[in-house]
């Protein structure tokens, strides 16, 4: 059973890498994909109780027997993601790791249903942004691995509260990875787009949730066409599968695409060179009818109008009853400073993430300018990932992340704003011309339907989608959601449940003018000074902080982004000081930020901190580490 769970974990993580990469392909394709440059890897789990090393804030509320333990997820999940990355050939340069499980007002909140996010970015030529139009008679092809009885219903299973489906169905919905096949597909697609005007691919679509049953209809529906297909032409590794299983399985490393009949010979030669399987399933039709013939049973497995399948999908409408969120009284003045420091530094959210980083390749492609490791001691304190656009020149791209789910238990809107702020203060270490060059990806995880959770999701999305990001001039063109973040089970006759906090995970992307000007959190000179720029203007708010968490509290007043104009000015100021070092304060405020500077080199740091609130508050603030001229100090202070 343990081996099975470990295998499932690995498959889940690798599935998330594959599906995220395919999501990227779908959004940046005309007929082809530009090389994927970098990926991010994120994990959220419940409290990671280590045998004989239980921490004071950790409680063992239990878990369903079907689920892996947080420690297993911590160990096996990253190994699965790293294995796929290493075998495919792309660097993992960014991410975060958080643990959380706490009783809040009599209800257990935590990540029994873990969050694993994987994705990345690439670059694309301007003339490849738009896909070509598919015409009636164009050949419809499936490229990549064979169909297998795996991942059946995976898209649906991921959208159901854990525990509501049978255990066997949960396992059946897990996909399997094949990085070698993904690499072969990548080489075929790369070879095609490099042919420019002679590119044989007209349009392409990734195969994800729903398998070919979803990808092929979407491919032709985008061009207001139908299709006639042969079910038995789909390559299959399991001859006993039913028509439904052949049509709907979610075997990974597959694409559907359209090519002109006259391009078939050229495309076939490219696939043969790369040893990448493909099959012609049928052709596009002018009539908007999807027909899937099954010559084995001499019938039509599918025969329905495209408008019925993909047209007129009703918009979801949700209502909620407004609630007032209550915290608790957390008096930081009663906390022993030494004990607080040790507790915070031991929390996995704060502690070193080397175990997640050193297992993966961080330099492959030859275009990595900034990975996680900083300074002569190679300490993982970098704020952002930076890569070059090509092997020549100094332009590039940057990626950084931000999230604040514990804050959402008290103030969902503030949690979302802080996530955006963290992603921007992280990415501002790169040489970015202006804040509007940044684009965001927003991933939303919530337990829809649970008391207060629909309200939390609405408040979070509204806070950044309708207020903060428009004010900053930043777009959110992409994102995903999972609205089933609740786990239920029965423990010896007792019904138990754990609900995850509303989690808005923000990833910021931006073009970089000069990768050589990327700033790192290092104290490189003994005469450096640390300047604290406090956008909160002296408000010491500890609600939802790590300090409160390690004392089994949540607090009451949360940090927030109070002034959008000042935040934009802060970004401009840091870019103006782009030849000097900086680090944002993250969850851990002054104490750990200073530590981050010191770890990057061999220098220490000292400061006149007034009290414990200064050390651990979670505000939208920043440090600028540099030898700063007195006139700048006067300007700031």
UniProtKB/TrEMBL annotation:
Domain of life: Eukaryota
UniProt domain PurM-like C-terminal: residue ranges: 135-292
GO cellular component: cytoplasm
A biological process from GO: purine nucleotide biosynthetic process
GO molecular function annotation: phosphoribosylformylglycinamidine synthase activity
Domain FGAR-AT PurM N-terminal-like, residue spans: 352-511
Source organism phylogeny: Eukaryota, Metazoa, Ecdysozoa, Arthropoda, Chelicerata
InterPro entries the record matches: Class_I_gatase-like, FGAR-AT_PurM_N-like, PurM-like_C_dom, PurM-like_C_sf, PurM-like_N_sf
One matching Pfam family: AIRS_C
Protein name according to UniProt: Phosphoribosylformylglycinamidine synthase
Residue stretches spanning the membrane: none
Matches recorded under PANTHER family: PHOSPHORIBOSYLFORMYLGLYCINAMIDINE SYNTHASE (PTHR10099:SF1)
């Amino acid at each position: 059973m343990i081996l099975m769970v470990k295998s499932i974990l690995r498959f889940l993580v690798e599935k998330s890498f594959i599906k995220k990469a395919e999501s990227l392909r779908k959004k940046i394709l005309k007929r082809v994909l530009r090389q994927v440059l970098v990926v991010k890897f994120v994990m959220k789990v419940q409290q990671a109780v280590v045998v004989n090393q239980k921490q004071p804030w950790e409680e063992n509320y239990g878990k369903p027997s079907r689920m892996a333990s947080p420690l297993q997820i911590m160990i096996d999940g990253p190994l699965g993601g790293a294995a796929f990355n290493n075998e495919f050939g792309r660097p993992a340069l960014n991410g975060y790791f958080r643990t959380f499980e706490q009783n809040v007002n009599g209800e257990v909140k935590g990540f029994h249903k873990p969050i694993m996010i994987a994705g990345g970015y690439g670059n694309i030529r301007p003339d490849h942004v738009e896909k070509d139009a598919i015409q009636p008679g164009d050949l419809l092809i499936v490229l990549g691995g064979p169909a297998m009885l795996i991942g059946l219903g995976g898209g649906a299973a991921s959208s159901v509260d854990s525990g509501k489906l049978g255990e066997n169905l949960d396992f059946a919905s897990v996909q399997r990875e094949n990085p070698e096949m993904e690499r072969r597909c990548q080489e075929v697609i790369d070879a095609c787009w490099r042919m420019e005007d002679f590119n044989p691919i007209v349009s392409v679509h990734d195969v994800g949730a729903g398998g070919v049953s979803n990808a092929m209809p979407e491919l032709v529906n985008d061009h207001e066409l139908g299709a006639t297909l042969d079910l038995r032409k789909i390559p299959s590794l399991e001859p006993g599968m039913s028509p439904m299983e052949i049509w709907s399985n979610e075997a990974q490393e597959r694409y559907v695409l359209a090519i002109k009949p006259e391009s078939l010979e050229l495309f076939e030669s490219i696939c043969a060179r790369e040893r990448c399987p493909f099959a012609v399933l049928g052709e596009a039709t002018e009539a908007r009818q999807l027909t899937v013939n099954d010559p084995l049973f001499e019938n039509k497995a599918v025969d329905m109008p495209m408008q019925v399948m993909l047209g007129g999908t009703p918009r979801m409408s949700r209502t909620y009853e407004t609630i007032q969120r209550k915290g608790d009284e957390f008096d930081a003045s009663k906390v022993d400073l030494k004990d607080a420091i040790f507790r915070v530094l031991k929390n996995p959210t704060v502690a070193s993430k080397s175990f997640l980083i050193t297992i993966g390749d961080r330099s492959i492609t030859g275009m990595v300018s900034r990975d996680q490791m900083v300074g002569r001691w190679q300490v993982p304190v970098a704020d952002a990932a930076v890569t070059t656009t090509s092997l020549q020149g100094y332009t590039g791209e940057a990626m950084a992340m931000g999230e604040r789910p514990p804050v959402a238990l008290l103030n969902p809107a503030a949690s979302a704003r802080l996530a955006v702020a963290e992603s921007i203060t992280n990415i501002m270490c790169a040489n970015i011309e202006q804040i509007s060059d940044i684009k965001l990806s927003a991933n939303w995880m919530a337990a829809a339907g649970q008391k207060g959770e629909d309200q939390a999701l609405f408040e979070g999305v509204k806070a950044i989608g309708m207020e903060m990001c428009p004010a900053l001039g930043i777009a959110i063109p992409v994102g995903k959601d999972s609205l089933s973040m609740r786990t239920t089970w029965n423990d010896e006759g007792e019904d138990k449940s754990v609900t995850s906090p509303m989690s808005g995970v923000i990833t910021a992307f931006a073009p970089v003018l000069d990768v050589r000007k990327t700033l790192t959190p290092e104290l490189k000179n003994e005469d450096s000074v640390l300047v604290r720029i406090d956008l909160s203007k002296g408000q010491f708010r500890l609600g939802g902080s790590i300090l409160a968490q390690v004392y089994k509290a949540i607090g009451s007043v949360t940090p927030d982004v109070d002034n959008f104009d000042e935040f934009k000015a802060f970004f401009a100021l840091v870019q103006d000081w782009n030849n000097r070092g900086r680090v944002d304060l993250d969850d851990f405020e002054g104490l750990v930020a200073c530590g981050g500077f010191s770890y990057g080199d061999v220098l220490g740091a000292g400061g006149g901190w007034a009290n414990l609130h200064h050390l651990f508050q979670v505000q939208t603030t920043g440090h600028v580490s540099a030898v700063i001229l007195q006139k700048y100090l006067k300007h700031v202070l």
